[in-house]
Amino acid sequence: MRAFQSSTTSVGLLVLILIFIVLIALIVVFSHQILINLAGVEAQANIVVYGVAIAFPLILLGLIVYQIVRLIRERANRRPGSRLKTRLIMFFVIIALLSSIPQALLSVSFVNTAINFWLEAQLGEALRGGLSISLEYYRATVENLRGFNQSPLMPFILQDLRRNPERLWQNLNTVNSEIQFVQVFDSEGREEMFRGQPQGRMQSIGTFDERTGDLPKEDREDASILRNAATFELEGARYTVVVGRLMPEGFDVQARRLTESLEIFNQLNRYKRLFRLVLIFFYFFFSFPIFLLSILVSFLLTEEIIRPIVNLEEATRRVAEGDYSIRILSRSADELSHLVGSFNRMVSELSHSREKLKQSEKISAWQEIAQRLAHEIKNPLTPIKLSAQRILKKYDTDSQTGAPEFQKVLKASVSSIIREVDNLNDLLVEFREFARLPMPRLQSVRLRELVEEVAAMYADLSAGVTMDFSRVEEQIIIRADPGQIKQVFANLIRNAIQAMPREGEVTIRSAVVHKENRQFCRIWIKDSGAGIPEEIRGRVFEPYFTSKSEGAGLGLAIVERIVFDHDGTIWFETQEDVGTTFIIDLPLG
Amino acid sequence: MYAAVEYSDSHNQEVLASLWDGLRAEITFQLRLYRRNQGFFAFLGDRLHSEKRVSQVASFDFFENRYKIQRDGRIVGAYASEAKFLDAFFSLPRTEIAELDGGIEEDHYLMARVRMMPVKIIAPLSIITLFSSESSFATPWIEVDLKP
User: Fold this and answer.
1) Is the pTM value of this prediction over 0.90?
2) pLDDT (tens digit, 9 = 90+) per residue, A66-121?
3) N or C: which end of chain B has fewer CB within 10 A?
């Protein structure tokens, strides 16, 4: 019993779907990192990433090309289901394209919109405006510190440095409330006084002349501090007065963020065209392998879908050819599996019916053979009985009359009995041969050699008949039992010669033919005799049917039986007064 | 062993324009100390003894009106004068390349090159450096023989 079943395609499909999911997960998780790494300074470090990025789509492309080539070959070989498979794959690819193209267009449009939105002129103006305001505030503060420290008021306020430092601080604060601390150093750089916000206190001022004017902004984690230093003479001594202000909390951080944002904005603005192209490139860079993977999945899905249909088609074809042992296995539980179940039941019932039919045909065939055999045996029995009765009668008459004719009658009658018994014997030998024909012992044999051997045996049988087997191809090797096939050729050639009593030609030729995905050797045995009359054409292969005066009529029945046992077929074409051609198909070796 | 590098084929105006636009510029000095392979194994190429890579990032502080140079994330110089800033930016001060126990030998030589980005491109824009050669350029490697 042959059976079709599902292959490992479903496993391959599962593996592909798994790769699909892993790929998407990798893209989602690592795309950011991959992009940053790719843009690293050292290209050599990214060689693995480049390698994978190039190799993966190439492998997928290779697999798809392989599948396409396979499909083309299947179509060329007319493999069942290949056309349906092509159509399904086309549908899948079109569906993949239909879903990908709008998605791609949408993504590209989104990228464009997003970049344009980010780089809107108003945003740039806002950033620059924010920075200008910050700078203005900063410069105003610096200017205020500088202006106040260098104003003519300062020497008066400093009068209280030795006498009342507290009053100095109060006066300073009253005149300029922006100042948050004051620190005074002597000419040696030692601190003389400090009042105000403690964060503004400097540890040292350094050398006297170097540190005057606007001091560099001091950036701390909690604050940034602006200072201005100026020198004064008081009671013959020189002092450095540092006034300062702590910038509002977060000012420095916000200003830095503003600067950085402006930097990003300016960069984006400068490279926006290239950046847009790069984003679109990477969109396709990541989505192209997924698209290829979906095409590959469509190949396997198609295989999975059409398998039961192809199996059904193949099984139906085999049933049509007479193979009722075929069954289809199905693991799924869908409508197709119900169809497969119905098909299997139908073939099973068909097989049972056919077995019964064959059995009854066999019985009726044997009944017919028995009838024919009885008839054939009965025919010689009458002359035997008559001859025996004649001997007995003659013997009785002669014994009473003493006539000498008994010897003559005895000889003739006994000869007749012996002849009829010999005929009976020949009949039974042929019958035994037909009934006990052994199964062929197959081997690879060269057709030409078999034909030559048999033709040599019959070459001199009739002087007017010539034999031409030059078109029997040398290289053809068939799988056959040489003895049985020689018997086939012998019977057919003998029949052909007997069909041409005076003169004619027996032509034998061969060729290789394709039949239902198999290769056969086709042999033509043609005579130029009178042809087979139409009324007996349907009975030529029947046992004990003969149109000739001699023979039991088993020759062609034996020929048909041998060819059938070789998994071959035989038929004939005939035309009265033109000749008959017997055609045999035998499997190639 | 110490080395100092000066890059004279500078792109002053490009750098200054970038800084005034609120962008940053980057220069990378790459120094490699090789030892010549002689004799039978010469075909394998010279042996890399050590490599030093120093990047300097320049920016303009609009609040202080000063050009600033950062190295390894730390500010190493602030300049009110353009000329002084450019001199400092395009030169690498004396930097230790390697510790040579036996001192410099005749078969030692130094390779140096400079990679320049008038506009230091930051992530995620850095991806465009893969597709555009305009954003950065590098000098060829220059070989300097060392004398013991």
Assistant:
1) no
2) 999 999 998 888 777 888 889 999 998 898 888 888 888 888 888 888 878 777 77
3) C
The type of residue at A499 is: A
Q: Which residues of A touch B62 (CB under 8 A)?
A: 131, 135, 259
Is A36–B124 a contact, with Cβ atoms under 8 angstroms apart? yes
* CATH code assigned to A443-587: 3.30.565.10
The architecture of the domain spanning A127-249 is: 2-Layer Sandwich (3.30)
Give the model confidence (pLDDT) of A366-398 as tens digits: 777 777 777 777 777 877 888 888 888 877 777
**Per-domain boundaries in chain B:** 2-145
**B132 vs A274: CB contact, 8 Å cut-off?**
yes
Cβ contact, residue pair B122, A266, below 8 Å: no
In this prediction, residue A13 carries a pLDDT of 67
Inspect the interface and report whether the beta carbons of A217 and B63 lie closer than 8 Å.
yes
Peptide bond into A380 cis (omega under 30): no
Give the nearest chain B residue to A274 (CA atoms). B128
| All residues at 6 or more sequence positions from A228 whose CB lies less than 8 Å from its CB, including other chains | A142, A145, A146, A148, A149, A213, A214, A215, A242, A243, A244
Residue A120, amino acid: E
| A144 confidence band (pLDDT: 50, 70, 90) | very high
**Low-confidence residues of chain B, pLDDT below 70?**
10, 123-124, 133-134, 148
Token pair belonging to A102: 């709008």
Contact A41 B115 (CB under 8 A): yes
Does the beta carbon of A346 lie under 8 angstroms from any beta carbon of chain B? no
Instruction: Locate A81 and state its tokens.
Output: 């289901």
Contact A225, A246 (CB under 8 A): yes
How far, CA to CA in Å, does A8 sit from each of A11, A65, A303, A341, B127?
A: 5, 20, 11, 22, 43
Q: Choose the mutation target among A263, A281, A286 for the interface with B, i.e. most B CBs under 10 Å.
A: A263
CA distance to partner chain B, nearest, from residue A104 (Å): 20
**A267 vs B23: CB contact, 8 Å cut-off?**
yes
- A480 beta partners: A443
Q: Is the pLDDT of residue A181 over 90?
A: yes
